[in-house]
Amino acid sequence: MFRVFAIVVRTTYLLTALLVLAWAAPALVIFVQSLFGPARFGPDAWDLYGALVYGVLCLLPLRALERLLHRSTLVPDSHIRERPVVASLVVVTSVLGWALALLAGWVAITNLPHEDIGGPLGGALMLALVLFAIALLIGELVLVGRLTPRDT
Fold first, then answer.
1. In whole angstroms, how far apart are CA 27 and each of 24, 32, 71?
2. Cβ(60)–Cβ(137) under 8 Å?
3. Which residues contact 79 (CB under 8 A, 6 or more apart)?
4. Alpha-carbon distance 40 to 47, whole Å?
5. Which CA distances in Å does 32 have to 40, 63, 66, 122?
6. What is the value of pTM for the model shown?
7. Least buried of 25, 60, 69, 149, by fewest C-beta within 10 Å?
8. Count of domains for the chain
9. Which domain holds residue 56?
């Protein structure tokens, strides 16, 4: 039973990390491009806040993927065994974020040509991004934390 739980934790965490990286990296690139565009008087406080948020959202998945490439494990078995409640929280927030993102995508595909649904759709996507950020923060800071050589 533990093996199934570990597979679910790692799969949802990897899918969340990949989606957040694919979502946040282009937004960060667009922000950097807008800084150097014409007729720009400099970034305001909200632009810098957004860049900081998207920068953190890019760094968390990169840390997880770097760990996957170098240590060959996304989350060590010992951490999942020691912290099953935290691992469950990562899975629940990731699945809720995926459900919201898929629901928003389905609504966009079925209704977008017919009516304007930008407000609710944008709200659902931002809530999904917040859930993904919570899952990544909990996963990186609490579930994985600092890895020691015995964790490899």
1. 5, 9, 29
2. yes
3. 87, 143, 144, 145, 151
4. 12
5. 12, 22, 24, 22
6. 0.81
7. 149
8. 1
9. 2-151
